[in-house]
Amino acid sequence: MKARLQSLPYGLRLLLATLSLGIGTGLVGIACHYLLESVQWLAFGQASSDLLQQFQEAGGLRRFLVLCVTGCLAAGFWYVLQRRYKLQSIRKQIDLVGNTDPVPLPHLLHAVMQIVIVGAGASVGKEAAPREVGALIGGRLAKAFFLTVKERKVLIACGAGAGLAAVYQVPFASSLFVFETLGLAYSWQNILLVLASTYLANWIVQPIVGHDVLYHLSAVSWSLSSFLQAMLIALLVTPLALVFRSLAKQANRKRCKDETILWALPLVFLVLGSLVSFFPIFMGNGQVLAQALLSRQPVPYLPLALAMKGLLVYLLLHNGAYGGTLTPSFALGIGAGYLVTLLLTVVGVHLDPALGMLLGATVFLGTTLQAPLTAIALSLGFAGQDWSLTIPLVLAAGMSYVIRKRWEKKQ
């Protein structure tokens, strides 16, 4: 078998590895979907199309107990896992290609636990797990097909993008993510490899997950006044996003991995459980909060709610949990954009709250991901909006980019 593969033309081996990666990450997306739904069904009872309703019907005591038990299990799991194995981030996997390969089993178990805590209601994103598994598959396939170190790095990055596409059904945004966030060089070959793997993964997962957008929002339009709204939101929301990004980076850098995790992480889950026993809107990765705002449901004390949501993400990551910040960033951006639009209304400037939320999400995502183009595509893809909205979103993302770069120069 080894001799047969090596005898194939290099271009064919690269193509076969890419197609295998798209299929593999699509299957990972399906597995993540079923795992998340199974955890939510086991933890909170009968599934509902309305996630907030499912959490509410479970009752406050059940939400509290689920999170307390999850916190204890997660703390013990990650303490043992990290004592025995060294987990490699996607960036580390790319940097160490040709020197050290990640051990598959602990990374797979690590990803499973991330999905489990999100399903149980933890305030972190679910996208990190499929990205990491996709990168792992990309590296293994590239090595199995005897690709060069250069192409192995490309396939690891493609796997991360395909994993994101599979779990959120946003292949174009996921392709941009690979280039902007992971820093893959722009070339015709790389573009084709990224597009092939992300769109194939998305196609594989669609029969199971469906074609529905992640967030339901009626069609949003824009006018000349939207440019003023875009500039003001970029000016006011970007500093908030910079603070959140700084806290998240600090939490990841100083994450508890020693014995401290055995009491610190359960304590954070205890605090979260106590909070959501009264306020279920704080449950999960931010999807519930974002959908409530997009549906114009009242969220009392919204500034405090957003600050609390951001703090919970920081506390979980700092005290030993793993997970993404993409969905929490989207929710915080939705809320921040909505708040700015409401403040403008107070001073007599009446603008569209729905557009304000999308602008806020774009600015927040662009800042935390350091990827303005990805942020635009994600905001439109998540909410199923027309690409004509790109014009005000580009203005907001561009202005936010300038503010971020000026801030970074002063650091």
From TrEMBL:
SUPFAM superfamilies cross-referenced by the UniProt entry: Clc chloride channel (SSF81340)
Gene3D superfamilies named among the record's database cross-references: Clc chloride channel (1.10.3080.10)
TM stretches of this protein: 12-36, 64-81, 154-179, 226-248, 260-279, 299-317, 329-351, 358-381
Predominant location category: membrane
Superkingdom as given in the UniProt entry: Bacteria
Coiled coil: none
GO CC, any one term: chloride channel complex
Localization, UniProt: Membrane
Pfam families: Voltage_CLC
Membrane topology: Multi-pass membrane protein
MF term (GO), any: chloride channel activity
Name of the protein: Putative voltage-gated ClC-type chloride channel ClcB
Keywords, ordered alphabetically: Chloride, Chloride channel, Ion channel, Ion transport, Membrane, Transmembrane, Transmembrane helix, Transport
